[in-house]
Design brief:
By secondary structure, the protein is an alpha+beta fold. Helix content is 33%, strand content 25%.
Amino acid sequence: MTDMSEVETASVDAVFSSHNIEHLYPHEVPIALAEFKRVLKPDGFAVITCPDLQSVCALIAEDKLTETAYTSPAGPIAPIDILYGYWPSLAKGNLFMAHRCGFTQKVLTGTLQAHGFVNVASMKRGAPGYDLWALATKQAVDEASLRELAALHFPGTQP
């Protein structure tokens, strides 16, 4: 994400980033977002999904750090896995799976806007997803178009 030099500038319609931005260190996030913007065509957009720290921390505040929040195809997922990375994978030496930063809906939206995305639509899902979704455009679009794009790409929504 931080070096997409193999992808030509302004050559893609959309960038889909699913559960990978949280694997970056905070100082790398602007670099990745700049790369997303660079490769997007002028009317392109990015869809980003990542864990929602606010909903995960609500579980942690209830002292459920190691209790199963949901079961994925890989097995039970606890808040500690969502916060720091999936423990069984980390235990196997897959340290690239560690989470090095995180977002709330407000922070993800603000980060995208602060790094040059013009319009941002976002949503958060509590249980069982505990995730955030954001759609960010490279150039201005009207509210109806933004909502339509988000509805096409966010889970459980319809245009």
